[in-house]
Structure to design on (450 residues):
């Protein structure tokens, strides 16, 4: 799937990539649940009655497995927007996404004119080695016409076991006839971290939190520091805009890369004894260089953990627009050959004890992008607070907390037009000044205890 420079995230997409943990624990009932079990099972007879009536009387013969799957999914989705049932294929796809590697060709693609269009081949992959180019159209896959397939169906056909061959037919501008290219699938690693030198500033873009993210961040910091030189390096821009989240452990590791000590995040479930706290270890990979974190209405979940931790510790200045406001943790519970369930099991809290659920992270420096005419009125996410059935935000006793999350989520394709990025670069270079950057000694003293 290709991530474009200008991208708006809907609530449904944000929910699909949540702060996630994995569990193989069996489901256990509490004492109170056991006491009520007999009543619950009597109520389940209602489901059995309805199921049998549908099987016997519906106008067409229904598929029993589909009926049960829909019933399970309906039960889970009624809880909140982020709990759901994953059939076996969806569970496998989710595992591929979080692993960040799969057998494939190494091309970023999109759909255009009903055909698969190559956006760019990834360096040192079968696609790049075979000479596929940005702008190529894939018209056939192993002799099957691409026209009529969805993008996901086409991508699924191009993925497969490592060391297996696939033939794609390419239509390229400037060539009169389509031509065939045979490629051998290899292990492809999704680049969740991209970086570049912006003169004397290091720019690091994190697009999602998968199993490769921390390693990518570490490599980015090492390479930037080496190329620019630590004495000339003014600092880092950590771009989390339109990053929908991912793995909790990777969010913790990324936060830890910039912190020497202190709490990163805590998660609190239904029972007090389920509270877990995650703390930083000694060692700031950036050697205490200034950091500006970019967020917007598409920054959710794991992105908000990182931004919240660095903001609360006054380790970084957060710049952009209010984040999405997804402050819950989903646990993936495998069901053997029957897929898995994604279940909301906890809320997470920033080091200061703040829940951002349905509120979001408020930037230290609010900066809006200039919108092109065709984007005006369409450049905002609804945020968690706008999702039907969302968990409510916590309201401290005696306080009236307004639920509000989501905001502008537009990022210009050309960095020259990116007001948020350019302001961050100017602040790091001292071209512009703002009282929120760098955090003052007083602000750092007022930060959460380390």
């Amino acid at each position: 799937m290709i991530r474009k420079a200008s991208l708006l995230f809907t609530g449904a997409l944000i929910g699909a990539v949540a702060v996630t943990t994995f569990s193989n624990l069996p489901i256990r009932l509490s004492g109170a649940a056991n006491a009520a079990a007999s009543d619950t099972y009597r109520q389940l007879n209602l489901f059995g009655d309805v199921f049998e009536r549908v099987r016997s009387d519906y106008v067409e013969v229904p598929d029993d497995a589909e009926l049960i799957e829909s019933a399970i999914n309906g039960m889970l989705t009624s809880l909140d927007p982020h709990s759901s049932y994953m059939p076996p294929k969806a569970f496998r796809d989710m595992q591929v996404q979080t692993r960040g590697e799969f057998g494939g060709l190494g091309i970023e693609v999109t759909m255009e004119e009903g055909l698969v269009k190559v956006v760019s081949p990834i360096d040192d992959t079968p696609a790049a080695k075979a000479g596929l180019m940005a702008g190529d159209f894939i018209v056939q896959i192993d002799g099957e016409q691409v026209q009529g397939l969805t993008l996901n169906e086409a991508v699924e056909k191009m993925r497969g076991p490592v060391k297996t061959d696939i033939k794609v037919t390419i239509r390229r501008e400037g060539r009169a006839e389509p031509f065939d290219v045979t490629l051998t699938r290899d292990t492809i690693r999704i680049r969740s971290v991209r970086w570049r030198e912006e003169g004397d500033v290091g720019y690091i873009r994190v697009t999602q939190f998968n199993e490769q993210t921390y390693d990518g961040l570490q490599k980015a910091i090492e390479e930037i520091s080496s190329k620019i030189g630590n004495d000339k390096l003014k600092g880092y821009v950590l771009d989390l805009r339109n990053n929908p989240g991912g793995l909790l452990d990777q969010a913790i590791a990324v936060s830890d890369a910039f912190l020497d000590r202190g709490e990163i995040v805590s998660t609190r479930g239904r029972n007090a004894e389920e509270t877990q706290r995650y703390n930083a270890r000694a060692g700031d990979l950036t050697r205490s260089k200034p950091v500006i974190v970019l967020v917007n209405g598409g920054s959710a979940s794991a992105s908000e953990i990182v931004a919240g931790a660095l903001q609360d510790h006054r380790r970084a200045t957060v710049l952009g627009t209010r984040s999405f406001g997804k402050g819950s943790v989903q646990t993936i519970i495998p069901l053997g050959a029957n897929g898995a369930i994604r279940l909301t099991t906890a809320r997470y809290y920033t080091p200061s004890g703040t829940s951002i659920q349905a509120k979001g992270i408020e930037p230290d420096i609010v900066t809006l992008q200039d919108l092109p005419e065709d984007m005006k009125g369409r450049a905002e996410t609804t945020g968690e607070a706008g999702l039907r059935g969302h968990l409510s935000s916590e309201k401290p006793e005696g306080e009236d907390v307004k639920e509000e999350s989501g905001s502008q989520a537009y990022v210009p394709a050309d960095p020259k037009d990116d007001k948020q990025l350019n302001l961050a670069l100017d602040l790091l270079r001292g071209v512009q000044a703002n009282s929120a950057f760098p955090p003052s000694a007083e602000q750092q003293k007022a930060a959460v205890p380390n």
